[in-house]
Amino acid sequence: MARHTLSVLVEDVPGTLTRVAGLFARRAFNIDSLAVGPTEVPGLSRMTVVVDAEGDLLEQVTKQLNKLVNVIKIVELAPESSVQRDHVLIKVKADAATRLQVTQAADFFRARVVDVSPDAVVLEATGSSDKIEALLAVLEPFGVREIVKAGALAIGRGHKSMSERALRPVSA
Amino acid sequence: MGQAPNATPSTVARAVSKPNPAAPQAGLPVPGLGRVVEPTEMKGSAAIIRSLEELGVKDVFGLPGGAILPTYDPLMASETINHVLVRHEQGAGHAAQGYAMVTGEVGVCIATSGPGATNLVTAIADAHMDSVPMVAITGQVNSAFIGTDAFQEADIVGITMPITKHSFLVTKGEDIPRVLAQAFYLAGTGRPGPVLVDITKDAQEKPTEFSWPPVMDLPGYRPVTKGHAKQVREAAKLLTASLRPVIYAGGGVQKAHASRELMAFAEATGAPVVTTLTARGVFPDSHEQHVGMPGMHGAVSAVAALQQSDLVIALGARFDDRVTGVLASFAPDAKIIHADIDPAEISKNRTADVPIVGSLDEVLPDLTAEFSRRKAEGLAPDLGAWWENLNRLRETYPMGYTPSTDGALTPQHVIQRLGELTGPEAVYVAGVGQHQMWASQFIKYERPHQWLNSAGLGTMGYAVPAAMGAKVGNPDRVVWAIDGDGCFQMTNQELATCVINKIPIKVALINNSSLGMVRQWQTLFYDGRYSNTELNTGADSIRVPDFVKMADAYGCVGLRVEREEDMDAAIQQALEINDRPVIIDFIVSKDAMVWPMVPAGVPNDAIQIARGMTPEWNEED
Ligand SMILES: Cc1ncc(C[n+]2csc(CCOP(=O)(O)OP(=O)(O)O)c2C)c(N)n1
Ligand SMILES: [Mg+2]
Predict the structure, then answer these.
(1) Of A140, B23, B76, B201, which sees the most CB atoms within 10 A?
(2) Is 0.95 exceeded by the ipTM?
(3) CB under 8 Å to A95, separation ≥6 — which residues?
(4) Closest approach of chain B CAs to the CA of A57, in angstroms?
């Protein structure tokens, strides 16, 4: 199945996340990742949902999401017309002997060292999921102790904003 | 806000309502009577009742308890709201459904927190499956106690999330008018459904300022009612190219009140019409274009019309598995036009070639006009061969039954006579099981809202309380509950409600002494091993309970019919009693079966008209 990134503008009211998550569970849709946070408009939150679905199923997912009263707008962000970023914290074994190799590998992927202890470093990296995968592959031989990943974030390219016109009054 | 320009807060508890002089408020149109109430100090509980009054609510069904107690006090004082005290909250829920189905208004039920609220769950799920407009109001524990497992606390918003159209938790009195207005708007517009409003006890008890109308905005809710012109043209094009069209009318026609529009469309196109279990009556059974109910227990002609069609026009229908059988083999040669107010129904089960999102009362006239325009250009084909085929099937395989041979009554005959003697102006409400299918098959439905049943959820126990609600909504109509001996024992306590509140429903008990529909499956698929389906209520049993005595104990009239020759007289007698409920205990054969039947898991072409017998699809040469 193919991964699709949906950006979902929702009302920031209690229960919205439960409704969205519950819908996915109930309709047997698979979520790869989910990120939620406030937007430039007070009262509106944006969810970035990466789903594993294709064709008719993807259409059902968006239609069912749209039926939720607190969901205001949904767009699918195609990879070519959007920027998509994963964000990860990685704890890698690193002692005096290997620390330099680890930080050099991190540099290569523009990952930052955010904590150093005698036998480990914590790296922070952002980027496409491919880049993060590659970084993890490089770090693997040193000993990856912990990975904490946030849901993918995505935004459309260009000047347009998803919240524009989202609150236009109902004419019907 | 919604007050007149020079409004000053009034100190009187009950402000006077005035006709609304102003233009509509910003935001969405607030449902109800359209009056204005200036800001008035009152308790949250009074604001609930006042909101319901302004929303135009006349009848509500409920049962009080601790967390909703504050609201029952001003309810007692309301001059316009009639509260019917039920004996079980499930009854309140189904009564609200029955009321909504016959009136077209939003039905209202009220319960307390915890067990009161959970007792509503079945009815809420039922309303959700069958798209019934309903608002359920529940009390909730004090907002400070939420999440502490307080006495009678249940997370009813969480419990009902998957079975409501939407839900609200109200913790502040000031939100009450807006939330209730939104709840009614959501329940009654678009694809109707149940909305839950859970209100904490402190929100009911604390003083608040009430004014009407509230400003109400639902930025994420915009049902589309007008069909897209291009799609309508596409649909008309397919129609004028079709030699074997069939109109597949579903419950959405009922909900859109679009029977008249359906009639015009059907007559313009000349296409056969099938009406699903939720659509019985939206197109008259007596009309020559009606070819029956489709599906698992449908008419051969209706099943064939869909299976052999080259164009299915689905109207407010959802390709439910009880209609399609094995989906992959359903109407294999047909293109699909699918019109529905809920975009998510379109292409959910069967991909539509022409999707039309809209309300059927608006879509159908557009479609009729567009079709007629093309017809006038001579584009409409002749459906003669199609009708010849369907007429042959309809004549060869009419709905029928074989009389019982065990000395007990033939249930199909009982139901048929009931319909014939009562007529189409009555309302018929069924339970779930064999008697439900027979009631859908052997009563003539001629008008919308004449037939109520629990279709999507299949809730045993629906009939008595739903009939009660229907009778409250339509007091001038005869209301028959056609119930099974199993179903009846799930909710018959509402007979007390009916007697005490003078709601004279009539109950026809199709007493086969068993969970008949389950027994039928045991006969057919489990070698006749009758595991736990004998109820001991009927023929050759100890008859527990004795339904006639039970009727008597409740203050109803109880009659029993065991012989064919007493049937008509008993029905007539029941029709003449209008001051209290009547229960007729019809002792019927337990071996009668519902035919036709499409066994589960096979294509609809394998429909059996009797055990092991399939129709001849083609004319023999
Ligand atoms: C609440 C509930 N429990 C169980 C079922 C499963 N079920 C469907 S029909 C049926 C038998 C109903 O018996 P009765 O009311 O006597 O009707 P009959 O089929 O005999 O006409 C049962 C148990 C159901 N639909 N609803
Ligand atoms: Mg029975």
Answers:
(1) B201
(2) no
(3) A118, A119
(4) 8
